Hints:
Blueprint: E1 4-9, H1 18-24, H2 31-52, E2 65-70, E3 75-80, H3 87-111, E4 132-140, E5 149-153, E6 158-163, E7 170-177, H4 187-197, E8 205-210, H5 223-232, H6 236-244, E9 256-261, H7 278-288, E10 297-303, E11 309-315, E12 328-333, E13 336-339, E14 354-358, H8 368-373, H9 375-398, H10 400-405, H11 407-420, H12 422-428, E15 433-436, E16 465-466, E17 469-473, H13 474-480, H14 482-485, E18 488-492, H15 499-507, E19 512-514, H16 520-530, E20 535-538, H17 564-576, E21 581-586, E22 599-602, H18 605-617, E23 628-633, H19 637-651, H20 657-673, H21 681-701
Parallel strand pairs: 2-8, 12-14, 18-19, 18-20, 21-23
Antiparallel strand pairs: 1-6, 2-3, 3-7, 4-5, 4-7, 5-6, 8-9, 10-11, 11-14, 12-13, 15-17, 15-19, 16-17, 22-23
The structure holds adenosine-5'-triphosphate.
Adenosine-5'-triphosphate (ATP) binds at residues 35, 39-40, 43, 80, 82-83, 85, 93-94, 97-98, 101, 121-122, 124-126, 171.
Amino acid sequence: MTTILEQGNISIHTENIFPIxxxxxxxxxxxxxxxxxxxxxxxxxxxxxxxxxxxxxGDIGEPEILxxxxxxxxxxxxxxxxxxxxxxxxKKYITQVAFSSAEEFVDKYKAAGDEQIIGHxxxxxxxxxxxxxxxxxxxxxxxEGAQAVHWTCDGSxxxxxxxxxxxxxxxxxxxxxxxxEQEYLEDYRIRTLVKTYCDFMPFPIKLEVIEPPKxxxxxxxxxxxxxxxxxxDASAEASDTADTSAETxxxxxxxxxxxxxxxxxxxxxxESPSSLTDEDYLEFYRYLYPYQExxxxxxxxxxxxxxxxxxILYFPKLKPDVDVTKSSVKxxxxxxxxxxxxxxxxxRFLLPLRGVIDSSDIPLNVSRSFLQADRTVKxxxxxxxxxxxxxxxxxxxxxxxxxxxxxxxxxTFVKFxxxxxxxxxxxxxxxxxxxxxxxxQSEAPKVEVETADGDVWTxxxxxxxxxxxxxxxxxxxxxxxxxxxxNRVFYCTDEVTQATYVNLYKGRGIEVLFLDSFIDSHFxxxxxxxxxxxxxxxxxxxxxxxxxxxxxxxxIDPTTNKTFSDRIKDIFTGALSKxxxxxxxxxxxxxxxxxxxxxxxxxxxxxxxxxxxxxxxxQQQAEFPEEHILLLNTSHPLIQNLSEINKGAIxxxxxxxxxxxxxxxxxxxxxxxxxxxxxDADGMKDFxxxxxxxxxxxxxKK
Length: 702
Ligand SMILES: Nc1ncnc2c1ncn2[C@@H]1O[C@H](COP(=O)(O)OP(=O)(O)OP(=O)(O)O)[C@@H](O)[C@H]1O
């Protein structure tokens, strides 16, 4: 029989903090599990410390945390093989410290007002009262000759301490669950909790379930069924007896499933990077984010000074539906899960990264806004950004092909990061690459271009080309094209629709960059601000002088007093009758005039950007503006033929000539416009009808 050693009152200022905690943390009751298991982990760590220091002699045994669900007694207990406590320690740490720190926690929580506190850490042992009507501690200290202790409390301010007959070192915390908290007797609930909060705790966490006894009588079972049950049940004997006769009495022992480890335990981020293989990292990623595509790249964070941060960050493939403003990096503190986002900790541009950050230097018992303003947290954010930049540079240097292959996704981070963080921009500006129309000479390079750093472009052989797509840095582009168009960057945002323009440029040996990701148009503007002397122009903004026959003098027709260009302009102006359209004529340089386009629609760079910005502000798709330029290529045979047909119309030799000339004008314009925008339903209908009419008329002539 146990004798009560002491009954007492817990000295706290708030009469009963339990209802307050219950109210404040209503949705977070489950954190009691994290708190109790953290205490168990600490206790086990302490026992190995005292063993190492020689204070405790002999074998300390295997560390283990055992969770027992007792469905009969409706209790949940957590047993550790840790350091244990003496009666004095229970009084000091539990009745004084634990309760007063809970009180302190409530005060802080109140002070935070409506703001959410990030981790609800620090509530500690007291959090068990959120789910339990009674909490018992059964503990035996490691100290020689220690007497085992039993402490019990019902959440009020009074407690009882008595001797216990426990003989094994360590502590068992037993919670008698409140009526409305019976969910914690379900093993799936406990498994989920352990997986969420304690999966990576450094010791095995096992689960055992004590089921109610089987009913006294049971219908005899078929042999196979009974066999299967035997294998399942811990108490094989109980099943055996149930099998032999229908009159079997209630088994003496309750059926307990053998304890089974339920946490993963290996926190990969705590391991030394040199001991890990790519497969280890990938396997860990797949464990954290099941059914997701493998990541592109990862960074192992590992520092002890001036703050402690461990972690692994992965670059995922950026699916279009990824919300880049949401973080899914999991935050841990000493391997204990805190939160499934790190929004306040890692820089905004790195939010789409995935993985784990573990730091004991991130204050957790604070509101989110406090966290954002915290100096250490800011430093940690900078550290993370720096490590990410370093890792990208390393890959650019060591495995250019992999870097290029991942660029479509990596590029978004890098560009977004450069725009958001000046330090990061400086770090990555040399590894910011763009796809180019340049065809890199992979074998025996004939031309070698030296970049500012003394890098020889062709020296890298095919390293900047992957699957026939070649990449370049901005500096390399500018250096290569200095002679032809200093500080001017020609770019294309849609390889398909802008193909005519790109081909024209390529045909004249002008290098075009492909800025075709969603972030690129902002990025080009950003780069112009950064490099004041550099100007970006989309291939369809205007035609570079080198593409136009500038000094081709034209003959003036004495009867009309007009040049050929004037005539063409008049024909189109009359046929299209679009007052907002500017019609311009040029002779486009080309070795074969028929291969250059007969007409092109141009939209000046500034005008287009303004349009895009307005559309973005109104969160709309940019409409193609009515004010634009139709450039007609007077060297093209089609334009020349059109002039002839039109001449017939004017001279009145053919009745349909005027109609045909008008239709051809519309057609040429439509074909040029196609590079800028698709047809709407009416436009499509008109285009098809007109195509048929033109073809009919042309074939009728034959
Ligand atoms: N399983 C255990 N074994 C040994 N000592 C324990 C155990 N659980 C709690 N303690 C003692 O009780 C103290 C108070 O625990 P409590 O969980 O309230 O706070 P804490 O663990 O110190 O801090 P935190 O606020 O981070 O939880 C612990 O510091 C420890 O000394």
